[in-house]
Amino acid sequence: MAMAAMAPVIGAPHDLNTPFTACMVVPTGVGASIGGFAGDASMAMNLLAKTCDRLVTHPNVANAAVLQHLPSNVYYTEGATLDAMLTSQWALRAMSHQPIGVVLDAGIPSDARTLTLNAIAACQTIHGVSISGIDTTYEPLQLGFTPMASGNVLGELANHPVLIASAKRLIAHGARAIAIAAFMPELSDDDEAAYKAGGGADPIGALEALLSHAVVKACHVPAAHAPVLSMADSAPETDTLLDPRVAAEFIAPTFLPCVLTGLQQAPAIITNKAEWQPTDITAGTIHAMVLPADCLGGVPALTALEQNTPLILVENNTTTLSMTWPTLMGDAPMPPNVIPVANYAEAAGVLLALKHHFPLSPAIRPTHPPAQATLHGSMAPQPTLAL
Questions:
Q1: 16 pLDDT tier (thresholds 50, 70, 90)
Q2: Residue 121 half-sphere exposure toward CB, CA atoms < 13 A
Q3: β-pairing, 177-183 with 223-228?
């Protein structure tokens, strides 16, 4: 019996006895309307985490200065690590209470340095964060950023070896994750005003990604960055009601607590494939990818397309990238594993359906008739015999 063509199966079948694992990605420094500010994707992250056994995400989604609500099933890992896992170079292994080493930029002014040390002590006391050591770089890190015509921001790190040397000293003394506290260059008045009003890309986000990527690639341990500003620049905002998406960054003068609590839940990086275990998170264990709909040019989207992983595209999370399906693929139809949704609430519904093997098509309109069987040869109807 030859069957008429049917739509291909989306992704690999999910064994109900294995953890359902999804990734939530919101690129850094591209003005994402959800997740491009200060922890403003936290509620979306928490909603998606409710639908999964394991949700892998990154600091741009989870960080919110002194605020953070990170569910226990969320794996906090920075973007370069995520890309290496998705391309089958590395595996991620669940850990808890990683010993964290803190790199302090030598360029931090003394008053801001004291504040940073007090923030570390508070996180140890209140959250039980394990600090294995604190190391001051032997020279300032010399950071800068350049706004681009696209609206994105390009970060600049002039003193890369100084950062890596400090991270390696901490690792030699027991650190298994690295928090970086670096002194930030001043924003222009126009850039700061645009960001506070919710109308510009986060320029500091580009630097944060640059610093954490550098440490991860050189040292193969989890890393995340917290900016340190001058006391004048970091003073809480008391004169103006801000866009709620940025408010978390203007209620306290330190941004380090969310990095330390996030790194407590950072998975270990396993680079040797001979050491990978069945419970590790690898490219083959990802059951779905959730992305803004105009961010199709990066590793998360491309690996999902290559591996036939369900790729859930959130249309109301817009960015400056404009890498949509029509922009990149023209009139080519979306394959069945590309699933556009209006918002993160719909994304959560799709994840639940995938997790429980619930077919999506009956719940979506318009419906389509089932494929018809075409009968040939011996399976065709036979004439009735007279008895």
A1: low
A2: 6
A3: parallel
